[in-house]
Amino acid sequence: MDSLRSKENLNHFDRIFGKTNSKPRLFEAPARINIIGEHVDYLGGIVLPAAINFSVQVFLRPNQSQIFQFHSITYNETVKVRKPFQSHPTSPWTDYITGVIVEMEALGFDVPAFDLLVDGNIPQGSGLSSSAALEVVTGFAISETYGFGIKKEDIAVIGQKAENNFVGTKCGIMDQFIIAVGKENDCISLNTNTLSYSYHHFELEDYEFYLINSNVKHNLKDSAYNKRRLECESALEKIQAKFPNFKQLYDVTLSKEELIDCCLTGDELKRTIHVTSERDRTKQVIQGLESNQFSQVGMSLFETHESLSKNFEVSCEETDFIVSTLKSLGVIGARMIGGGFGGCVLVLDKKNQFAKINEELKKSYQQKFNLELDFYKFQISDGVKEIFT
Ligand code: GLA
Predict the structure, then answer these.
(1) Is residue 343 part of a domain?
(2) Where do the Galactokinase N-terminal domain residues begin and end (predicted)?
């Protein structure tokens, strides 16, 4: 976010919470994309995410009282809470903050009360992880302000636990992790079983990635997400009854016939096929990016979309339409990203195609759904950090 907006927010902070001798500190966390490895990060899979230059910023200052005060610029709302925290029925955005405090305290850190102002430009419900960014920036800001010295990797885990336990979405670790450790110009490959990771830099030559926001968010998103996770768990249990050597669904290497012999339901079978085929596509995409085989990468992205739509069933009419139209317009690869049920599509294409695709797709989407599309070019940026003003 630009420094002018940060400056205005600092004045806002003073107006809302009062100016004192101690200046609040400013922290920022990015949004994220994921190139490949979708819906595998709670099954021990490999994911290839990168941090991008949309962000959430918080100003934070200890307040020497028992009352935590949070102000959101987006909602133009101030909320005051004290321990023990409950989830907030009318201001759910505060749960991402209090959830993080609860998880830090569960680890033995005592978090004194503070004033916090939050602002951001990550489009909400777009699948770019605005909530994970709020969790990570809150955790990092608290850790730095009170000198806890918690490693960024551990802040990510705290954020995920806040989301799992306090907010109630049983998300994996991918979003919080990349938002914590991201690096300008690099994506990471993260093994979500061991949390080991490495940075990768890919030269895209005359190709580029960009995003298209479908501007829809279907409200079954969170419940369906949790349901998918349960289906994957029950599939694994049934597989393990016959093949105890498979420790996680991501590692299963059985044929369709062998899977059917494990008595999987139709849904469990489809979920398993998505997860195990995503493992193969992830390898192909990494190889393709390393060897500049961009059409191979693009093909795998289309295949992932197809599998997310048909096997994992987390797409929707709007994102399916975007991807199939892009394909017919000759784009080299595209797929929905994130949890699904709306949100953004990631596109890989030749740089000189952007304007033409933009115009044609906007027109046909508007005609079909009477909805606007947003196109975002982005840069790969750093993970969470303090901004010195
Ligand atoms: C959401 C979750 C992530 C991950 C993706 C799907 O973004 O927060 O943990 O599961 O969906 O890959």
Answers:
(1) no
(2) 12-62
Residue 222 is among the residues annotated as catalytic for this protein: no
For the chain, the domain total comes to 1
Backbone φ, ψ for residue 55 (5° rounding): -155, 165
- Supply the mean pLDDT for the chain: 96
Q: 220 pLDDT band (50/70/90 cuts)?
A: low
d(CA 180, ligand 1 centre) in Å: 15
State if pTM tops 0.85: yes
Task: Give the CA distances from residue 6 to residues 75, 312, 381, in Å, rounded to whole numbers and listed in that order.
Answer: 17, 41, 18
pLDDT tens figures, 159-178: 999 999 999 999 999 999 99
228 alpha carbon – ligand 1 mean position (Å)? 11
User: Which pLDDT band, with edges at 50, 70 and 90, does 222 fall under?
Assistant: confident
In a domain, 272, yes or no: no
CATH code for the domain in which residue 183 is found: 3.30.230.10
Structural domain containing residue 80 = 3-202+381-387
